[in-house]
Amino acid sequence: MTAQVRTAIFPVAGLGTRFLPATKATPKELLPVIDTPLIQYAIDEAREAGVERMVFVSHPSKSAIERHVLDDADLRAELQARGKAALAEELAETALCPVEDDVVFVMQDEPLGLGHAVLCARDHVLPGPVAVILPDDLILGRPGALSEMIAAHARGDRGHLVATMTVPREETRKYGILSVTGRDGPLLLADGMVEKPEPADAPSAEAVVGRYILDPAIFEALATQTPGAGGEIQLTDAIARGAGTIGMAGFRFSGRRFDCGSKAGMLSATLHLAAQDPDYADVLAEHGLRSEHVRAA
Question: Least C-beta-crowded within 10 Å: which of 8, 20, 117, 218?
Answer without folding.
Answer: 20
